[in-house]
Amino acid sequence: MEITIVGAGAIGGVIGAHLAAKGEQIVLCDIAENHVNKINESGLTIEGPEETFTAKCPSFTPEQLRKRGKPIETVLICVKAQHTKDAVDEIFPLLSEESFIVSVQNGLCEKQIASMVGRERTIGCFVNFSADYLEPGRILYGGVASLYIGELNSKVTPRLNDLHHRLQAWGPAQITDNIWGFLWGKMSYAGLLYATALADETMAAVVRKQDLRETLMELCSEILEVAEKEGVTPLGFDDWEPELVYPRESRNREVLDVQLEKLSVRMAANKKTKSGIWRDLAVRKRKTEIDAQLVPIVEIGNQCGLEMPLTNALIQQIKELETGVRQMNWENLYELKKLYERVQQR
To answer: Does position 1 have pLDDT exceeding 90, yes or no?
Structure first.
């Protein structure tokens, strides 16, 4: 079976290279022509914590892939959340009735993909390993972390089992009957990651700030409350445990502090010590995925009558960082803390 990976950057490149190196038939598709050309010329190099290797696999731009004219069956969408619609539109003419799309992304992109191709042709994926696109043909890999795949209707199907088997070439991918639980768990974690990008510091350094901890956990709680309104119980992963954060009234500060220290140790040990959000802002000087990740959650929250003041403030701060109106520093986080304290006094 040939697997087409749309978006050969950090996530798609790592998965595609590992699968190709183990003999899977992989086709890469990316809008960056220089990246595509480099892969075709000399392969895709993955620099990981344990090994560096180069994998060979055919690579195309979307236009080249369509001109090839070959129908595609299994598609992994690995683009930034805000580019989901464009990515699906590009390959839509090549889909058959048997084709299905896996959203290997951060966000709730499964909803958008399902609206375009149908729920029955959409598979959800939760992915938490870290990676960075460094330059054409070269990707930094932070190391193995959680990856779960699941049908949107919670069933375990033959295609899910087959994909699960093939993904073992990357690492310990798992099947879940609650993919939405993992996706919402990741969204609560995303709130924390966006907050760490407000300062030019490592993720671990921000998480270890005791005087900011209540503010950060309230930020995550706002997102978890939206999940509750959606009827979803968020699930934990890789030392992030939403059930210790929300509901607010059951939060045990001592237990949570121990867990957050475990999380910070994991963050510090990762080859990638700062988030992809930080890299978008500080290095690549481009917009983050916040409009496709946290903004839709605020919209759902508004529909449920939730105010979400910290999330709204965080979104505004990130947008100001994107445009250069605001600079990365600790004061951004302390602005959130002051807002939290005002809200608590109401």
So the answer is: no
Same domain (yes/no): 167, 208? no
What are the pLDDT digits (tens) for 325-340? 999 999 999 999 999 9
- Assign residue 328 a region (left: φ > 0; alpha: ψ between -120 and 50; beta: otherwise): beta
Taking CA 177 as the corner, what is the angle to CA 171 and CA 180, rounded to the nearest 5 degrees? 90
| 174 strand-pairing partners | 148
53: domain CATH number is 3.40.50.720
190 and 287 together in one domain: yes
| SS3 assignment, position 136 | coil
Query: Which residue, among 111, 107, 113, 34, has the nearest Cα to 76 in the 3D structure?
Result: 113
Give the distance, in angstroms, between the CA of residue 249 and the centroid of all CA atoms in the same chain. Answer: 29
54-77 pLDDT tens trace: 999 999 999 999 999 999 999 999
Q: How far apart are CA 302 and CA 309, in angstroms?
A: 11
Count of positions (residues) in the chain: 346
Closest CA to 126 of 79, 73, 187: 187
Q: Which tokens belong to 330?
A: 């600790």
Are 238 and 129 contacting, i.e. CB atoms less than 8 angstroms apart? Answer: no
Give the separation between CA 178 and CA 155, rounded to whole angstroms. 9
Q: Are residues 194 and 173 part of one domain? A: no
